[in-house]
UniProtKB/TrEMBL annotation:
Belongs to the pseudouridine synthase RluA family. NCBIfam families: rluA_subfam. PANTHER family: MITOCHONDRIAL RNA PSEUDOURIDINE SYNTHASE, PSEUDOURIDYLATE SYNTHASE RPUSD4, MITOCHONDRIAL. The lineage of its organism: Bacteria, Bacillati, Bacillota, Clostridia, Eubacteriales. This is Pseudouridine synthase.
Length: 314
């Protein structure tokens, strides 16, 4: 017999979902059989799979030990240690992701990515224990392209992840970008509306001014902060968040980003020796209009990256 006590991160989900995450090698058919035959009990009683778990609930298991035996090998310990923390509390991390760092591991960057660095940091700090948090892993709430830097949000617990995902989905955050563009946009401030379509085959997007079938509406607001006939610094506020939206939209109005090899001017980029787009998600403002639970303290706050590297090169 073994027992597990449900903690805060594991609460609020169906029992069968929790068991599937906790016992990855247990066939689902066997799991349901264990529940029917009372080999798995909740608070000492027979339980059905759809019951939702509460913090402090005790699960009792009369099952094979092999399902509890897992190798304690954590791939995230191979990740780098470097993290630039803009803000941290018991619920979230705000991280200044540097240009060149990928948010999530893939086939090319399987040993080091921002999400893995976060897990390593929290594990070594003692804020994350994979043995205790069996069905929750700290996670990034948003992502930024590898060749763009800026603020990325990481949730340290299940409630924070759930709330932050809802806030992002409902546009209760404002994300401001700095960019350097060719020429000087006119007027100095404008809110642009256009239509966007992504080509999955080439990983590029097309922007048109009038609505078309297959195109999605985009809204991009810009303000020229440092005007110049040759190169201007702009602040951009995204009202929608489509692939390459800022890069493609600014290029569409005749002011491509410096260093943008996909939508920009290659000769212009070479003049400034820029091989990556001059774009940075430098400021984040929390503007909650609905209850925020454990994140309520963030409402009305603004966080900003103090040093944007590409500004030193122009």
């Amino acid at each position: 017999m073994r027992q597990l006590t449900i903690n805060k991160n594991d609460a609020g989900q169906r029992l069968d979902k929790y068991l599937s995450k906790r016992f990855k090698t247990m066939p689902k058919s066997l799991m349901y059989k264990y529940l029917r035959t009372k080999y798995i009990k909740l608070n000492g009683k027979k339980v059905t799979p759809e019951v939702f778990l509460n913090e402090g609930d005790v699960l009792t298991f009369y099952i094979k030990d092999e399902f509890f035996e897992e190798k304690k090998h954590y791939d995230f310990l191979k990740a780098g240690k470097e993290l630039d923390i803009v803000y941290e509390d018991e619920n979230i991390l705000l991280l200044d992701k540097k240009v060149g760092v990928i948010c999530h591991q893939d086939n090319r960057y399987d040993a080091d990515a921002l999400n893995l660095r976060v897990l390593r940091y929290l594990y070594e700090k003692g804020d994350y224990d994979p043995e205790k948090d069996q069905s929750f892993t700290p996670a990034l709430c948003n992502r930024i392209d590898r060749n763009t830097g800026g603020i990325v949000i990481a949730a340290k617990n299940a409630e924070a992840l759930r709330v932050m995902n809802q806030k992002i989905r409902d546009n209760e955050l404002k994300k401001y970008y700095l960019c350097a563009v060719k020429g000087c946009p006119k007027p100095r401030h404008a809110t642009l509306t256009a239509y966007h379509r992504k080509d999955e085959r080439t990983n590029t997007v097309q922007i048109v001014d009038k609505e078309r079938e297959g195109f999605k509406k985009i809204i991009t607001e810009y303000t020229v902060l440092e005007p110049s006939p040759t190169l201007s610094v702009c602040e951009v506020l995204l009202h929608t968040g489509r692939t390459h939206q800022i890069r493609a939209h600014m290029a569409h109005i005749g002011h491509p980003l410096l260093g943008d090899e996909k939508y920009g001017d290659k000769k212009y980029n070479a003049r400034y020796h820029m091989k990556r787009q001059a774009l940075y998600s430098y400021k984040l403002q929390f503007c909650f209009t609905t209850p925020a639970g454990c994140l309520e303290n963030l409402n009305g706050q603004t966080f900003e990256v103090k040093k944007v590297k590409f500004l030193d090169k122009i």
